[in-house]
Amino acid sequence: MNVNFYVTCIADIVKAGVAKNSVLLLEKLGCNITFLEKQGCCGQPAINSGYTKQALPGMKSLVETFEVNDYPIVAPAGSCVYAIKTYPEHFERFGETKWAERAKKVADRFYDLTDFIVNKLGVTDVGATLPGKAVYHPSCSLFRKLGIVDEPLTLLKNVKGLQLMPIHNQQTCCGFGGTFSVKMAEISGEMVTEKVVNVMEAEPEYLIGADVSCLMNIGGRLSREGHPVKVMHIAEVLMQEGK
């Protein structure tokens, strides 16, 4: 299957390993990857901060970029996928009807990595091996906004040797929320502190998630408190082959 890969800003700039493992995983599952170099930021920070009108040119550029083919578009971040799926309503709000129609065609082709693997490729076991105890954090964008709940858990439950541990208030926000963590830093800090308390009650070796931003937030708090927990994106976990 031919697939476009949307790298996202954070994966591109901060967590290149996530992008690399996502591509390798898709290739392992039989996909031919196309990387369109004109792709850019989805505009999520501006949209979330209320600067939607200023984000429109970038949104149009992204739509144009992915109109060059009709392949599915896969990204390793639910927050970016959700932002792009809201494009049509933003264009409509500013009277850009034709752009709304174009954006919908592109948005309908966007998939979170786990959603694509399970629901489009029909794969639930990628043959990964990672022994140890782990906690999975369901990001708000993936869980609440996109409704992707079971897909990442299904993939993780089929990782050989991995023991998923439940925690108190597992579905509670970690406090990142994009620009929320900057504008409401004190509240965000208390939220991630509570999240780490709940995570550490399970005494895991790994913290796993499907959104890099949440992992950076929780991982930063874990590191500052001196907890030896390895933070991994699900793409990195699914590429573990064991020894």
UniProtKB/TrEMBL annotation:
Transmembrane segments: none annotated. Residues 3-85, 135-218 form the Cysteine-rich domain. It comes from the Bacteria. InterPro entries: Cys_rich_dom. It holds the Pfam family CCG. Coiled coil: none annotated. This is (Fe-S)-binding protein.
